[in-house]
Amino acid sequence: MYIVQVASECAPVIKAGGLGDVVYGLSRELEIRGHTVEIVLPKYDCMRYDQIWGLHEAYRDLRVPWYDAAIYCTVFCGWVHGRQCFFIEPHSQDNFFNRGCVYGAHDDYMRFAFFSKAALEFLQQSSKKPDIIHCHDWQTGLIPVLLYEIYKHHGLAYQRVCYTIHNFKHQGMSGADVLAATGLNNPEYYFEYSRMRDNFNPFALNFMKGGIVYSNFVTTVSPNHAWEAHYGEFGYGLGHTLELHQNKFGGILNGIDYDVWNPEVDRYIPYNYSQDKIDDKQKNKKALRERLLLRDSKHPLICFIGRLDDQKGVHLVHHAIYYAMQRSAQFVLLGSATEAGINQWFWHEKDFLNDNPDVHLELGFNEELSHLIYAGADLIIVPSNYEPCGLTQMIGLRYGTIPIVRCVGGLANTVFDRDHDQTHLPKERNGYVFYQTDQQALESAMDRAIGLWHSYPQEFRLLMKQGMAYDYSWKNPGTDYLKIYEFVRHK
Ligand code: ADP
User: Fold this and answer.
1) Ligand 1 centroid – CA 439 distance (Å)
2) Which of 164, 235, 236, 302 has the fewest CB atoms within 10 Å distance of its CB?
3) Do 242 and 175 contact (CB within 8 A), yes or no?
4) Assigned CATH for 2-255+475-489
5) Architecture of the domain spanning 278-468
6) What residues does each domain of the chain span?
């Protein structure tokens, strides 16, 4: 099969979170199985150009109709760790992708509407005929709309779309201006409830809703989150749309790229280790302490890696730092905040804790350091308010770093409480789970984990090994996505 992924991120060249990992990891898995995969991305100024091999111009003067005129683009081609990627560079005063950031600009909806249109123009003008166009999140929600309303009549009649939602919270809203810009026009038509009108704001078009309505199949990133989005609050207003389209909606758990996340071969950690050489993990703990100037101590090291925002349960993350200190454990945080208030708050904490030999807060995005933290920590906390899938707990498991998670979204599908899980045998359990969003719930789970570390080190080791034995690679999700592609291909 020939699959084109269209997305706003692809690790490691441009990554703000799990979306980037998924686009890369899934593409790799599909290629390993003999399928042809190409990835279409914007050409951002802030990409890791050192991670692209053989970047060259692949298509000049791509004419993308925009309002009543057109924007010309150059399309570059390069390889990101073996994956063939096309990067679209528009030449206009809008400077859509030269903003020094991936998201957060005032005109994000226009930037990504343009990208969606340009990606389809690129496929059409370069005569690419993929079987499947797989697009992701609100940024590419307009792709199926444009495909079925415009491009189907211009050479892309047989292409089918799979649309994956990684985060329902950000849906992409606009007014009618986007219709004029993209050539969809006809506001009455698109503002119908059955098409793109936001379910709550009658004056807004909702990109993600358009993606759901027009795609041939819609997935989200774990079975539990599919349920939460459909029936609970985490659809952020799109529950009814999912209900109407339930026959083409499902949850597929993300995978982890075990070539990137594998303590046996990880280039970023000083001591490689495996289940059989699990003691070498201790050496990484020592290396991590040395790197972050933490003291050598006979206590566990707990970490948090992730975006610092409300979704991630930032108040509980903050509490965990102080509770770890109270329990004499060490704590390492690697995180970045996009919200100014949270950013300030954690910079203040960082200053305050600067001389503490048991705590290190690293504020910013640091891929290399994240590997060492996964390898060096004993425990990883993921106290999210909601979590569509969550990769950090799965990476933690791979590195023998036991997760302490709140039972929500994909965390509930991947971590099974050592003491209380009812559905897994003791030998299949792999971490600690709590339910409520209050501090006591977190503390009680941390207490159990720290207690096991101190009092029953052999049991702790066993739990580490049980976690490492889990297969959260792309093997199973790869099969699931291929089934969906096959299913929609013959529609
Ligand atoms: P998200 O909601 O951000 O997509 P996920 O758990 O699905 O969360 O994925 C997070 C990914 O981003 C993981 O690969 C994690 O290691 C990485 N990550 C998050 N924050 C940072 C950071 N500050 N530095 C380095 N890597 C990070």
Assistant:
1) 23
2) 236
3) no
4) 3.40.50.2000
5) 3-Layer(aba) Sandwich (3.40)
6) 2-255+475-489, 278-468
Q: Is 78 in the pocket of ligand 1 (CB under 6 A)?
A: no
Span from the CA of 392 to the centroid of ligand 1 (angstroms): 7
| Residue 335: band (very low, low, confident or very high) from pLDDT cuts 50, 70, 90 | very high
Per-residue pLDDT band for 117 (boundaries 50, 70, 90) equals very high
Half-sphere exposure of residue 217: CA atoms within 13 angstroms, side-chain side: 23
The verdict on whether residue 312 carries a ligand-binding annotation is: no
Determine which residue's CA is closest to atom 19 belonging to ligand 1. 306
Tokens of 226: 């599919």
The confidence score (pLDDT) of residue 132 equals 98
Most ligand 1 atoms within 8 A of CB, residue of 167, 307, 309, 332 to mutate: 307
Average pLDDT of the chain? 97
Report the pLDDT value the prediction gives residue 384, as an integer from 0 to 100: 98
Intrachain domains 2-255+475-489 and 278-468 with the same fold: yes
